[in-house]
């Protein structure tokens, strides 16, 4: 059995008449953007929230990162925030709002509060719920109608996915990060390569990663089409959770149970992919989906080099990005740099970026945002002096939220600006300007690009 | 048994209507509905924002797009490319399409969360081969008044011109439409005792 089989069986309530499984959701995370209609739907039907003790809320997508003073300057954002405040109060749901010390991006706070843990099912109305798989949990991104179902029934209807084991062997070269691993996987297997699959990440290069790096990998599973991605838990998982606010106090008693969530030796996977870690390079996206990415030393591919079914999207990408086939990505000028998001807004991400930035200054023409993923990350970074370090380099230190990853708050690109971004999606219009352009890369690469004013290869830098 | 507070939803055995072609691969939900239009606490009125940035320029002037093309006005079956609906899990994407008049989507493949969200609101996502899609798009482009009939029971798609092809879809979703159980809350709540038992067996979060 795979880890997925074990967690699935444990949480399966019934087989539904249509053949799908009814899965119990052990932890339901709620945020302000995808939940208001779901609360309205259960209220219209006169149904209560069945398991408020398994439901937790925060606000992240629409919160401003300059001032959290209420009312928010954007009346629509204020309305969403107020609706969530009303809904959690009415239904007895614990919430972590700005100023609580625990607010942050939902996929950052779940792990850091110790709510996320091995062997459980987690759902949230956000596709990056796959992140939580870093702890050996199954995280499902869901839509609003499914949020309604989970609120009202604690369960959801699901079809069991196949499992693809992705084995990353060897050790990573200097300057290559978790972000580069997952961007390589997506570039090789395609943005739809994971349809119908859960991705199980393993191998020595994955085992060597810390928990926050594993979160980065699992986070972007969905960008490869896999709704779920996970890593088998190990001692690092236990150590990370030790002492977290909601983690069990008797963690050493619980650890053997948590560690039992592993795929059995000799398990037959539906597919296996092996990637040699030592051949990996820093990755940069050049197009309009996360699969359109190349090593920083590479050149933008020509249509002839691509599979026939990817050529139309490539043509659209050249046009939108104003890039040409055969051009190197290194040296591309940037206007904006963004360090943050549920992919790369954790303390270890900020530390890696800070190593690059220390003693340097941003390029004069670049606007740089550093947005910690949560109030806890913010506090820790300040304790380490990272906020000052970034400010000294001319970077803006903002307060926690999703920010420029999807520009639902005032942080956004203008016109055709190009942004070096540590986020997860380079879709057209994603960063708030219909003509804006996004280059995805690791936080260290974003920091270096901010300093150089263009895409650089951090392997060439003295750190 | 149905929970007393819930209505049975309707059975969907087939969808009929004219087609609207949008034959691009990997159309993501940010394109279907840009994030700035998610800042509403209801789904009402979202239809006006479907594909907004592709339909209108910065001054709000209409651009060339199938959803602006009068030949496809009133069409209810979207003919889309592979991996349709990838990216963000926002249900606002299928909601916007539904509220723009779409009642079924035909594509070679769908992103999983999108297909689940579409099913949950009663909008079938059916798969056809890329070759069949190309033919269908040619037929519809040449004659936009072509009627399309998707038969979920027999898993076929037939046009008013007599052309036909097989369709495929997630079997669970298909049965949910045929049984009228796609509005899943009632179906799930029917197992309330099993749910409570499971909750009691599993470790608590607090």
Q: Which terms summarize this structure?
A:
heterodimer, A: 463 residues, alpha/beta, Aconitase, Domain 2, Aconitase, domain 3, 16 helices, B: 206 residues, 7-stranded mixed sheet, 7 strands, 30% helix, 16% strand, disordered N terminus
If you had to describe this structure to a student in words, what would you say it looks like?
- The complex is a heterodimer of chains A (463) and B (206).
- Chain A is of the alpha/beta class and 463 residues long.
- Chain A folds into 3 domains: 3-158, Aconitase, domain 3 (2-Layer Sandwich), CATH 3.30.499; 162-234 and 255-279, Aconitase, Domain 2 (3-Layer(aba) Sandwich), CATH 3.40.1060.10; 284-460, Aconitase, domain 3.
- In chain A, 31% of the residues lie in helices and 17% in strands.
- Chain A contains 16 helices and 19 strands.
- Chain A has helices spanning 3-11, 36-44, 75-91, 106-112, 144-153, 178-189, 204-207, 211-219, 235-241, 251-259, 311-321, 341-344, 347-357, 375-383, 386-392, 443-452; strands spanning 12-15, 21-24, 27-30, 55-58, 94-96, 121-124, 138-141, 155-158, 162-169, 197-202, 228-231, 271-276, 283-285, 293-295, 336-339, 367-370, 396-397, 418-421, 437-440.
- In chain A, the strands form 5 sheets. In chain A, strands 5-4-3-6-7 form a 5-stranded parallel β-sheet.
- In chain A, helix 2 links the parallel strand 3 (27-30) and strand 4.
- The longest helix of chain A is centred in the N-terminal third of the chain and has 17 residues, at 75-91.
- Chain A starts with a helix and ends in an 11-residue tail after the last helix.
- Chain B has 206 residues and is of the alpha/beta class.
- Chain B has one domain: Aconitase, domain 4 (Alpha-Beta Barrel), CATH 3.20.19.
- Chain B is built from 8 helices and 7 strands; from the N terminus they run E-H-H-E-H-E-H-E-H-E-E-E-H-H-H.
- Chain B has a 7-stranded mixed β-sheet.
- In chain B, strand 2 (77-80), helix 3 (92-99) and strand 3 (104-107) form a beta-alpha-beta unit.
- Chain B is globular.
- The model of chain B is unreliable at 1-7 (pLDDT under 50).
């Amino acid at each position: 059995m795979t880890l997925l089989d074990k967690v699935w069986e444990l949480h399966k309530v019934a087989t539904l008449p249509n053949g799908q499984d009814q899965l119990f959701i052990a932890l339901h995370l709620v945020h302000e953007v995808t939940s208001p209609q779901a609360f309205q739907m259960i209220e219209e039907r006169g149904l209560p929230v069945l398991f408020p003790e398994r439901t937790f809320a925060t606000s992240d997508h629409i919160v401003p990162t300059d001032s959290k003073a209420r009312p928010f300057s954007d009346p629509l954002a204020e309305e969403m925030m107020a609706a969530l405040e009303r809904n959690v109060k009415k239904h007895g749901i614990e919430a972590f709002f700005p100023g609580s010390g625990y607010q942050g991006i939902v996929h950052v706070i779940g792990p850091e509060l110790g709510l996320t843990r091995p062997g459980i099912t987690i759902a949230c109305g956000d596709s990056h719920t796959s992140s939580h798989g870093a702890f050996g949990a199954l995280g499902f991104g869901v839509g609003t109608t499914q949020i309604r179902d989970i609120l009202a029934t604690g369960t959801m209807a699901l079809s069991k996915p196949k499992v693809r084991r992705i084995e990353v062997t060897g050790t990573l070269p200097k300057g290559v990060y978790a972000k580069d691993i997952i961007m390589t996987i997506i570039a090789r297997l395609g943005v739809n390569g994971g349809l119908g699959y859960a991705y199980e990440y393993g191998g020595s290069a994955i085992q060597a990663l810390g928990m926050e790096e594993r979160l980065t990998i699992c986070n972007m599973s969905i960008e490869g089409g896999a709704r779920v991605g996970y890593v088998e838990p190990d001692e690092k998982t236990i150590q990370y959770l030790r002492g977290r606010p909601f983690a069990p106090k008797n963690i050493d008693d619980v650890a053997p149970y948590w560690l039992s969530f592993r795929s059995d030796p000799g398990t037959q996977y539906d597919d296996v992919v092996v990637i040699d870690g030592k051949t990996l390079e820093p990755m940069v996206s050049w197009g309009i989906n996360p699969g359109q990415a190349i090593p920083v030393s590479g050149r933008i591919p020509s249509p002839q080099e691509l599979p026939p079914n990817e050529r139309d999207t490539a043509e659209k990408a050249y046009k939108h990005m104003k890039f040409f086939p055969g051009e190197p990505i290194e040296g591309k000028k940037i206007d904006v740099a963004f360090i943050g998001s549920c992919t790369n807004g954790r303390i270890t991400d900020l530390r890696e970026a800070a190593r690059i930035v220390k003693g340097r200054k941003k390029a004069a023409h670049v606007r740089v945002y550093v947005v910690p993923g949560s109030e806890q990350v913010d506090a820790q970074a300040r304790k380490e002096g990272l906020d000052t370090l970034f400010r000294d380099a001319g970077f803006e230190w903002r307060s926690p939220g999703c920010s420029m990853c999807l520009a639902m708050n005032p942080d956004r690109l203008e016109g055709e600006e190009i942004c070096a971004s540590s986020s997860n999606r380079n879709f057209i219009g994603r960063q708030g300007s219909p003509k804006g352009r996004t280059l995805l890369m690791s936080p260290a690469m974003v920091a270096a690009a901010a300093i150089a004013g263009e895409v650089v290869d951090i392997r060439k830098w003295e750190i | 048994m149905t929970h007393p507070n819930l209505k049975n939803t309707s059975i969907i055995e087939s969808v009929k209507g004219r087609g609207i072609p949008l034959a691009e691969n990997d159309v993501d939900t940010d394109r279907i509905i840009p994030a700035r239009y998610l800042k509403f606490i209801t789904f009402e009125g979202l239809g006006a924002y479907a594909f907004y940035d592709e339909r209108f320029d910065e001054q709000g002037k209409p651009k060339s797009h199938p959803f602006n093309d009068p030949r496809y006005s009133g069409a209810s079956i979207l003919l889309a490319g592979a991996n349709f609906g990838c990216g963000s899990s926002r249900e606002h994407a299928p909601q916007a399409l539904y509220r723009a008049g779409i009642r079924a989507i035909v594509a070679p493949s769908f992103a999983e969360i999108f297909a689940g969200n579409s099913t949950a609101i009663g909008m079938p996502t059916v798969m056809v081969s890329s070759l069949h899609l190309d033919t269908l798009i040619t037929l519809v482009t040449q004659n936009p008044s072509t009627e399309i009939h998707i038969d979920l029971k027999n898993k076929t798609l037939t046009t008013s011109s007599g052309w036909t092809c097989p369709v495929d879809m997630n079997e669970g979703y298909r049965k949910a439409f045929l049984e009228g159980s796609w509005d899943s809350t009632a179906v799930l709540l029917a197992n309330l005792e099993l749910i409570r038992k499971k909750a009691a067996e599993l470790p608590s979060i607090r």
